[in-house]
Amino acid sequence: MLYIIDGYNLIFNIPNKSFGLEDNRRSLLNSLKLIFSGNENDLTIIFDGKGPDVSFESFHLIQVIFTPAKMSADDYILEIVSASLHPSRVTVVSSDKNLSRQCRYFGTNTMTIKEFLKWVNKKSSKKEEEPSSDFQDSKQNIERLNKIFEKRFKEL
Predict the structure, then answer these.
(1) How many domains does the chain have?
(2) 66: domain range?
(3) Residue 73: which residues within 8 A CB-CB, separation 6 or more?
(4) Backbone torsions φ then ψ of 48, nearest 5 degrees
(5) What is 79-142 written as a DSSP string?
(6) For residues 109 and 95, what is the distance between their CA atoms, to the nearest angstrom?
(7) CATH number at residue 117
(8) CB within 10 Å: which end of the chain, N or C, has fewer?
């Protein structure tokens, strides 16, 4: 599943954000990186840009796009959605009702910011509950298994 996030729409709906816009963007990307690491979903965040052209950045497995100054993130999202060969595999995350309605017209899934944050919180709490894959056996058990191995090796 590809998640396309209306970047500033998400930032402005997150409680406890810091003062600077750049700080908020970095904080958001760091949080999403932790939550989506090892995940089978693709994540693209689109921000309204200031430059003459579209710019792309990669932040770990997250694609970050800044639109050209003359194009809104909403319009860029609609371009991606309308060109998608498999719109049912795309989820647009935004609380902009007009954008969500237009995206659904093209067959994409939509999620409000509130729904997304709830889903992310559920996902991150599941990650914390998962047992660590760094299994380490006790010294006593290793010695016990070693004795069994030596005994069977001698019997051969």
Answers:
(1) 1
(2) 2-155
(3) 6, 7, 8, 9, 46, 47, 48, 67
(4) -65, 130
(5) HHHHH-S-GGGEEEE---HHHHHHHHHTT-EEE-HHHHHHHHHHHHHHHHHSPPS-----HHHH
(6) 13
(7) 3.40.50
(8) C
Residues 17-47: tens digit of each pLDDT: 666 777 778 888 888 887 777 677 789 999 9
Kind of pairing, strands 42-47 and 109-111?
A: unpaired
CA-nearest of 27, 16, 45 to 116 is 45
| pLDDT tens for each residue of 75-125 | 999 999 999 999 999 999 999 999 999 999 999 999 999 999 888 888 777
Burial label for 99, CB within 10 Å (0-12, 13-18, 19+), is buried
Residues in the chain: 156
DSSP-assigned beta bridge partners for residue 42: 2
